[in-house]
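Before a colleague's protein record goes any further, I have to sign it off. My question to you is simply how this chain folds and whether the tokens agree. I do not need a full report, just your reasoning and any doubts. This is what I was given:
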Amino acid sequence: MQVCSFVVHANLALCSKLRTSNQYACTGVMSSGIGPTAARSDEVARRNSRKKPVENQDQDSFLQRLGPGLITGASDDDPSGIGTYSQAGAQLGFGIGWTMLITYPLMAAIQEISGRIGRVTGHGIAGNVCRNFPAPVIWSMTVLLFIANTINVAADLGAMGDALKLLIGGPGTLYVVVFGAVSVIAQIFFNYERYVSILKWLTLVLFAYVIALFLAKVPWGEALKGCSFLSSNGMGPS
């Protein structure tokens, strides 16, 4: 995602520079003319240059400004994670609800720290690591990250194949291969802007959690008890 974000920012910077250069060129040509017509043209050019940022600002809605951050946050709720949550809930019920009171502040702090590091330095995690650690450390982290991502992607594809098998039946292995092939082809051959637009719409799938909350008959008394360090099955901390 950092590479995608870099491409987007580079394209925006290039377009901004080209637009600025064209404005300067048009203004210079018009101002070099002689007579009232050239003066009027120069004034029109300056007026249009002042209006363009306002028009662009009005056209860029909140949804249009959403990009890699939204997609990255939604993709963190991956199929392997959903499978893990489902298994933990089926086996332990609400007995481990108290862990949310501990893990949520830690996760929020990590997100805040990462955001502030990027805002202050102008670089992501990889960029800052490369600027502050020697090459052996970077290569070691790269190898470990490659192994972790490979296992994570395999778990995601396996969970997706199993989920589709539960819905329509059939060979789960074939579904895994199809999902993997579609993902690779989309990343290689799809236009970046088009692909981002598709992924942004797919983030609406997260509303399934909200729908499931209203459809499921949640025993709120037991749920609150599980979050109060007094779970009935002894899973709470001593």
Q: What stands out?
A: Confidence is low (pLDDT under 50) at residues 1-40, 51-55. Residues 135-168 form the longest helix (34 residues).
